[in-house]
Amino acid sequence: MILRRLMLLAAAGAGLSAPLLAHAMPLHLSSPSGTAQILLVDDDGDEDEYQSEGGDDDSNRKANCGEGEGEDDDEGGCATGQGAAPQNANPPANGLITPGSKPQVQIN
Amino acid sequence: MTIRSFLAALAVTTALSFPALAHAGQVKLSTNLRDYGGNPAFLAYYVTDASGKYAGSLWMAGGRTRYYRHLSGWYQATGGNAGEVNGVTGASVGSGRSLDISLDLTDALFDAGYQLHIDAAVEDMRESPDEIVIPLTSANAGKTVQGRRYIADFTFSR
Predict the structure, then answer these.
(1) In A67, B31, B46, B111, which residue has its Cα 20 to 30 A from B12's Cα atom?
(2) So what's the pLDDT on residue B23?
């Protein structure tokens, strides 16, 4: 009887361990170029996307928050006082961030 | 003897469970910007390992990839690969404002020689690579670190 209980306990322990261990995340330390994601985060469709930034060209003046915003740039990043929501994509699989988790961001 | 074996097996499975339970946790990165009077700042948060090799990006404040070259430390480490920050990119941060980021990070990052870097850049102002560099140690959690140019101070907590 005792033996049977111990067998059940051992099985339960192993059963608990398996899913937990499945969450272990070895650090992926390959070089940046090793990741194959080529999704661009800049999807604002600016026509001067590939314009050179040499010197003091106009593209520099549009940095961060888009054309014509001028002094309104101080309104908390590029929009409201809140941080922009991350893209719909999941965080990169770099071994640092738990897969499937979503960063929470706030700008005050 | 058999009972002893099962007890040993039970002890092993239990011992294996505990490290697995502590594999990751929420980490909050809090950054306060100085009132530097310019346009919103681009900020790149990334990690290097004990040998100084780039390990990965945690956050990018600022979505326009063509300006990433001004985050020179991050750009050099990644080759400007925007895929490194896909899913972890948000708005740039205005002068005098604060940015709080909460991430679910692996515990293996801490007390293992990793360092968190923050590069900063502001339009028409000087670039500031490695504005913040802080070893990711338990001892540094909760400590406030002063920035050099655009960042007033930075703290991470677990």
Answers:
(1) B111
(2) 81
